[in-house]
Amino acid sequence: MADLDCRVLATQKNRPLVLFLHSNTNSALLGQSPAQVGKSAFKRRGKPINGWSQADRNIGLEYQRWCQNWAEMVFPKMKNGASLFVFGARRTIHRVINAFEGCGFLLKDVLAWKKESAYHRAQRLSIVLERRGLDAEARVWHGWRLGNLAPIYEPIAWFMKPYRIGGTITDNVLENGVGAMNFQDCQINHANPTNILEFGFEKGEIRIHEAQKPLRLIEFLIKLTTREGQTVLDPFIGSGTTAIAAKNLNRNFIGFEVVPEFYEGALKRLNAKGNNICAEPLQLKLSKHLVI
Description:
By secondary structure, the protein is α/β, with parallel strands linked by helices. It has helices spanning 39-45, 54-74, 93-102, 125-131, 135-140, 169-176, 215-225, 241-248, 260-273, and strands at 6-10, 26-32, 78-87, 106-114, 123-124, 145-146, 153-160, 196-197, 231-234, 252-257, 278-280. It has nine helices and eleven strands. The two termini are 27 Å apart. Residues 36-44 and 281-292 have low confidence and may be disordered.
């Protein structure tokens, strides 16, 4: 097998490097959009104060427009029939779906990653009422809570770039090498996989990012939809898990990161793993995946 091409690239918000990729070359995309990566951004933005104002409603619309912007950039870079896995939040995954469908991608499924545990905060209504001096009401509402159920699963929108009109999915597999699912190597407990995925972090697995995913989960998605030597793209590398998974599975990889501390943290993790990932500065070198 030829040497793998694995690149982790620093980028800037005003320079979307995905535009420099060759068209129709990437076999799969895995990504978690930065607007959904964790609790810190939500805390900065704040909760709705007086009901659900127009400003609150605009948050979802802004996020959808942002998703559509990067989906439009990615669309021509993917092979026909390529799979895209986009992790999102339960209440905003529909914005991702609307954005990607608007750009021409097909929604294949919405997978559920079932986590081992979930951070859960739901206020006891009786305590809230007691603090207001409403003891009688507190007794009436004993056992009730405010908030949400424990978020034990995370949705993963699975998209596919359409294959040519007039062809079949089998034709596309033969023409582009993507579009089928590798059930043979993705058995779970000796059974074919379902759309409920239960993967946890391995003992000793390094965690540097609040939205980091288990390595085994990412390896499963890559192995399910790509073959050795094909290219996996991650527009938001975060902790670098996709790069490690791609390297472990003998896939080419290219990824981008705009946040300096995440970029540096991912490189440290990759170097500690001994994966010899190629880290490039902003001035890109020519490779078979990049057009300068």
